[in-house]
Amino acid sequence: MTQPIIEIRHVSYRYEKENVLEEINLTIHEGDFLGIVGPNGSGKSTLLKLMLGLLKIQKGSIKLFGQELTRFKDWQKIGFVSQKANSFNTGFPATVFEVVSSGLTKKLGLFKFMGKADHEQVMQAIGSVGMQEFAKRNIGELSGGQQQRIFIARALVSDPKLLILDEPTVGVDAKNVQSFYEMLDDLNKRLGITLLLVTHDIGTISDKVTHVACLNKNLHFHGNTAEFESMNISEMSEIYGHDVHVLTHNHEHHHHGGAGR
Fold first, then answer.
1. N or C: which end of the chain has fewer CB within 10 A?
2. How does residue 53 score in pLDDT terms, banded at 50, 70 and 90?
3. Exposed / middle / buried, residue 118 (Cβ in 10 Å: 0-12, 13-18, 19+)
4. CB 84 within 8 A of CB 151
5. Which of 197, 155, 206 is nearest to 178 (CA)?
6. Where are the chain's structural domains?
7. What single DSSP character describes residue 143?
């Protein structure tokens, strides 16, 4: 059995009087590609913030790479990409290369010069998201989907073992979503990076993820993709609290963007 990268045990969280997460137990193993789905306000962002140490655990425990979160220091093992697509205006004065190399500042310190190996590492990260011919381009000139690939490259440059992505296809037009997910699939299968993805697009990506977790305050479902796809509509609707149009993708229409948001 591969080692657990994240172990969440009995985690609950409340903002003032409102419970946002209740008794969450979730284990993510090395090599998993987990899609976390759930309606708005279901606690997905809160769970990510707890994992990343941005919020303090109120109840329960989280272990990262076998270590209690409170003692965990090895943050370069984890890359995080938030909803940043389309955040650069066209005049933003940084090239793709510069943006990706900013992911090395922890290692280099802010004002150290990059050596040849660092330069190669940046180009490798840009290559792994399929953007090598854009290295000298201004980031503001790129589309939302291209920018989001660059943020992933910036996260990859420190060679993380786990990549956490929060709704990465916001601002990516439908025709590019599929190739975006194919790139993530490649990072997972070829580079062996464990991926944790918060998404509304579970229909589009259900042939890529290895596991699915359905969250709505409680963890209503956690299992592999085949188990998820065998759930019926009424079970899904119960999780989401409203009727759900079929979430699993239809192969005939696969290249038309799969299920909607």
1. N
2. very high
3. middle
4. yes
5. 206
6. 4-85+161-256
7. -
Q: Which tokens is 240 given?
A: 């989401």
**Six token digits for residue 63:** 């272990």
- Which pTM value belongs to this model? 0.84
Contact by Cβ (8 Å): 147, 85: yes
CA distance 99 to 151: 8
What 3-state DSSP class applies to 34?
strand
Question: Mean pLDDT for the chain?
Answer: 84
Beta strands of the chain (E only): which ranges?
A: 4-15, 18-29, 33-37, 59-64, 67-68, 78-81, 162-166, 194-198, 211-216, 218-224
CATH superfamily of 4-85+161-256: P-loop containing nucleotide triphosphate hydrolases (3.40.50.300)
Give the CA distances from residue 107 to residues 44, 53, 126, in Å, rounded to whole numbers and listed in that order. Answer: 30, 20, 18
Please spell the DSSP secondary structure of 180-225, one letter per residue: HHHHHHHHHHHS--EEEEE-S-HHHHTTT-SEEEEEESEEEEEEEH
Q: What is the pLDDT of residue 145?
A: 86
